[in-house]
């Protein structure tokens, strides 16, 4: 439980100062100015009085045990202060002080010491290197930000303290964003986003959870908690460090280990988290979730007094995958009877530039009441006859009566300022441009779809894990990490995946004998644990029709391998059945540092190499997710069948994805894997795993 961070009965400010320019003074003053109802204990060895409060020399000298201690002293003194808090029995500590992990190796060692002490005394800790904590309902502000934000239903956490100060300043400057809780996490030595999500899911004052993150300490646990939390309230996250340059910046900023962009995107989707690309998107989405009912369908109506913005809004809705509501005939008839002849009674409903508040009010009543409408965007441009305040009140009153979400789009700035304020008083978010309102509705749609997904049902296939362990043990004993085609075939067989008939030949004579038994034509592949990319060394020959072809190909393949990779161990060649041509599919896996096994799917050949047309999931995943992967690649039409071609065997692809998901989950020491190609045939004819490479961890 983290209750003592947000509703403590008493707070000690360790490092409180009488100097106005010291953080210890600012934090104490913020706590007093926020109206905190509990007891505040300034801690400073100099004693005396600060802001009318008696100062104590240490936490241990306090007359009671505070629920929360906020430490803002030079970093060399922090460990001793943590110990002092621990011996007093303080359950929660916020460390504002910097100079820890973000400062390099020495700082990391200091942070390790602080973590050790906190665990020793069962202290929960936020920070170090953070801005602090705010709860507007307690109320309490123990940050060094300039002021306390307005009260509202948004819980916000940030790994960046500086970004947090900017957002708080923005909220104070009339952005009309209200917060329930605000936490700057800093280095996340203990309390992380995962803990806060878990704590806020049952918080009645928090309707939507927002986060700015740079990295996650435990990706699998994050997914587990986020999946559960997002079922009850929206979780919207903006993730920085998604480019290679951004990832390097993250590492130098807080020492976080940034996982791959693909892993975060897949993990967010699988756990029901909404991804915001920008901070603007983050708060645009939050406004809709925080102040309006959820969107129960995709049919949106537009009411506008200007044609251009109405068209822009229509385009934005279509791009977002939403649709214009088709109004009932009776709704259209009533609008036509009331609106001027030049107005449009179809959706978008154009009430014309001379529309006063009564025209908007009439349109709102009838459009909001239409059963074909799931949500409304109301556009108001400040024209000469526009009654800004009265129109805003009409929108606000309808929003309070309606069970459907209504978003405002008052465009402009100077003339619409009072109208935007009236909308805010009625709980109606205002977006300055129609495209942003459309994106907010799209986020509501996405959340509805994510929440409607059933809990994953992970299948377990009957496989031979002992066989795989034996192979891995042999590889370890030989000091290798790479596993070639011959051993990979045995792994695929152990996981009951279909593979072409194939046997290992140590000599050309053996290769001919095997080809005679398998039946022509055949394929020859170099068999070496040191050559994973066989085609790069000319190590593959296909379509061999005779014994002479096989003998010549064997000698040539071995010669090329020895020439290009002189130190490679050559076991001979695999003689493989020549399977019919189908569609080449790639299934791969790389192990992400945050989330673990990240499974890749896409069409093989040029689609992977040139177009990078792939999609990802964090394993393990279920059949629903595997099937969804097939529709996410740009070339998915080729799977469905185009220009007279029959659809591919989607069940066979899904089965292969699920078996690989199980394999890489069963064996965490697999760090890389590629089946390329998985040859897939038309529906009902299955798939064949032609080639696999696999790499184990070095440990």
Characterize the structure shown.
This protein is α/β, with parallel strands linked by helices and 699 residues long. Among the domains are: 159 residues, Succinyl-CoA synthetase domains (Rossmann fold, 3-Layer(aba) Sandwich), CATH 3.40.50; 113 residues, 2-Layer Sandwich (Dna Ligase, domain 1); 114 residues, ATP-grasp fold, B domain (D-amino Acid Aminotransferase, Chain A, domain 1, 2-Layer Sandwich). It contains 24 helices and 30 strands. The strands form 6 sheets. It has a 7-stranded mixed beta sheet with strand order 9-8-11-10-12-13-14, with helices on both faces. A hairpin with a 2-residue loop joins β3 and β4. α10 crosses α16, α12 packs antiparallel against α13 and α17 packs antiparallel against α18. It is flat and about 95 Å long.
By DSSP, the count of extended strands is 30
N-to-C span: 37 Å
The 3D shape can be described as flat
Gyration radius, in Å = 32 Å
Which percent band covers the strand fraction?
15-25%
In short:
The relative contact order is 0.06.
How is the topology of this model organized?
Elements (H helix, E strand, L loop, with lengths): L2 H4 L3 E5 L8 H11 L5 E5 L5 E2 L2 E2 L13 E4 L6 H11 L3 E4 L9 H16 L3 E3 L5 E4 L4 E4 L7 E8 L2 H15 L3 E6 L8 H8 L7 E6 L5 H12 L4 E5 L4 H11 L6 H10 L3 E2 L3 H13 L7 E6 L2 H13 L3 E2 L4 H10 L10 E2 L6 H12 L6 E6 L7 H14 L4 E5 L6 H9 L8 H19 L12 H13 L4 E2 L1 H10 L7 E4 L2 H11 L3 E6 L12 E5 L2 H18 L7 E6 L5 E10 L3 E8 L2 H4 L4 E5 L4 H10 L3 H5 L9 H17 L3 E11 L6 E3 L2 E5 L3
Parallel strand pairs: 1-2, 1-5, 5-6, 6-7, 10-11, 10-12, 12-13, 13-14, 15-16, 15-17, 15-18, 18-19
Antiparallel strand pairs: 3-4, 8-9, 8-11, 20-30, 21-24, 22-23, 22-24, 25-26, 25-28, 26-27, 28-29, 28-30
């Amino acid at each position: 439980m983290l209750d003592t961070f947000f509703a403590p009965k008493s707070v000690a400010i360790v490092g409180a100062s009488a100097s106005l320019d010291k953080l210890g003074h600012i934090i104490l003053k913020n706590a007093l100015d926020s109206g905190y109802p509990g007891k505040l204990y300034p801690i400073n060895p100099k004693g005396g009085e600060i802001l009318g409060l008696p100062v104590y020399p240490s936490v241990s000298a306090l007359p009671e045990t505070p629920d929360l201690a906020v430490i803002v002293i030079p970093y060399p003194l922090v460990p001793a202060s943590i110990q002092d808090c621990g011996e007093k029995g303080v359950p929660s500590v916020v460390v504002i002080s910097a100079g820890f992990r973000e400062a390099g190796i020495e700082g990391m060692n200091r942070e390790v010491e602080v973590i050790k002490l906190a665990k020793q005394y069962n202290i929960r800790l936020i920070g170090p290197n953070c801005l602090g904590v705010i709860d507007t309902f307690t109320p309490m502000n123990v940050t060094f930000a300039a002021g306390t934000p307005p009260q509202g239903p948004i819980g916000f956490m940030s790994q960046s303290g500086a970004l947090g100060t900017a957002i708080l300043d923005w909220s104070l400057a009339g952005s009309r964003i209200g917060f329930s809780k605000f936490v700057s996490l800093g280095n996340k030595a203990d309390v992380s986003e995962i803990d806060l999500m878990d704590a806020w899911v049952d918080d009645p004052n928090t309707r939507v959870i927002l986060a700015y993150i740079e990295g996650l300490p435990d990706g699998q646990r994050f997914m587990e908690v986020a999946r559960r939390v997002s079922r009850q309230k929206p979780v919207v996250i903006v993730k920085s460090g998604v480019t290679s340059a951004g990832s390097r910046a993250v590492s130098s900023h807080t020492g976080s280990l940034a996982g791959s962009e693909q892993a975060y995107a897949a993990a967010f989707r699988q756990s029901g988290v909404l991804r915001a690309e920008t901070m603007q998107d983050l708060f645009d989405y939050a406004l809709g979730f925080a102040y309006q009912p959820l969107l129960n369908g995709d049919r949106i109506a537009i009411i506008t007094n200007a044609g251009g913005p109405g068209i822009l809004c229509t385009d934005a809705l279509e791009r977002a995958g939403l649709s214009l509501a088709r109004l009932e005939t009776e709704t259209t008839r009533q609008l036509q009877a009331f609106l001027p002849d030049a107005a449009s009674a179809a959706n978008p409903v154009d009430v014309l530039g001379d529309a006063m508040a009564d025209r908007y009010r009439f349109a709102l009543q009838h459009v909001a009441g239409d059963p074909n409408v799931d949500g409304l965007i109301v556009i108001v441009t400040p024209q000469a006859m526009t009654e800004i305040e009265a129109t805003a009140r009409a929108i606000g009153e309808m929003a309070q009566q309606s069970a459907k979400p209504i978003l405002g789009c008052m465009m402009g700035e100077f003339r619409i300022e009072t109208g935007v304020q009236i909308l805010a008083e009625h709980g109606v978010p205002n977006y300055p441009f129609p495209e942003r309102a459309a994106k907010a509705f799209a986020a509501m749609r996405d959340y509805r779809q994510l929440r409607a997904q059933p809990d994953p049902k992970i299948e377990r296939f009957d496989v031979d894990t002992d066989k795989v362990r034996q192979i891995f043990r042999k590889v370890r004993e030989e000091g290798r990490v790479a596993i070639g085609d011959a051993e990979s075939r045995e792994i695929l067989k152990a996981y009951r995946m279909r593979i072409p008939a194939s046997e290992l030949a140590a000599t050309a004579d053996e290769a001919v004998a095997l080809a005679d038994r398998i039946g022509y034509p055949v394929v020859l592949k170099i068999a070496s644990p040191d050559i994973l990319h066989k085609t790069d060394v000319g190590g593959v020959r296909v379509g061999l029709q005779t014994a002479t072809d096989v003998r010549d190909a064997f000698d040539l393949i071995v010669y090329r391998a020895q020439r290009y990779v002189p130190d490679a161990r050559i076991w001979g060649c695999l003689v493989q059945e020549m399977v019919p041509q189908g569609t080449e599919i790639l299934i791969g896996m790389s192990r992400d540092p945050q989330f673990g096994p990240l499974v890749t799917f896409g069409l093989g050949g040029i689609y992977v190499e040139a177009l990078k047309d792939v999609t990802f999931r964090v394993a393990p995943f279920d059949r629903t997710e595997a099937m969804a992967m097939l529709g996410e690649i740009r070339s998915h039409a080729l799977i469905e069948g185009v220009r007279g071609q029959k659809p591919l065997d989607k069940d066979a692809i899904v089965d292969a994805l699920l078996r690989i998901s199980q394999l890489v989950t069963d064996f965490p020491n697999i760090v890389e894997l590629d089946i390329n190609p998985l040859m897939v045939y038309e529906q009902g004819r299955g798939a064949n795993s032609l080639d696999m490479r696999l790499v184990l961890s070095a440990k």
